[in-house]
Design a protein that fits this description.
Elements lengths: L3 E6 L5 E7 L2 H6 L2 H11 L8 E5 L2 E2 L17 E6 L8
Length: 90
């Protein structure tokens, strides 16, 4: 089988495939923090701590949460927003 990946939808509507892991067992152990790091690798100059990710209208804020607890599976679409310094996050 191929890699397990999610689709990242960026700020200007662009999409990128983010490879996460190789097996379903690894996917069951993936955390929000690991996903944040993988996405940060694909965005030059963007720190992982500034990334805000949304899946099915829910913010992925708890870095220790498992992706599987959010229902994230292969080819799920993760929307990305950037936290603006001094801005209000809702």
């Amino acid at each position: 089988t191929g890699k397990i990946a999610v689709i990242m939808q960026g700020l200007s509507g662009e999409t990128k495939t983010i490879d996460l892991c190789d097996t379903d067992e690894q996917m069951q152990r993936m955390t929000v923090k690991q996903l944040r790091g993988k996405i940060a690798e694909k965005i030059p100059g963007q720190g992982a701590d500034d990334l805000r990710m949304i899946f099915t209208n829910k913010r992925l804020d708890d870095d220790s949460a498992l992706l599987s607890s959010h229902g994230i599976v292969h080819r799920s679409v993760i929307q990305l927003v950037i936290l603006v310094p001094g801005g209000l996050a809702s």
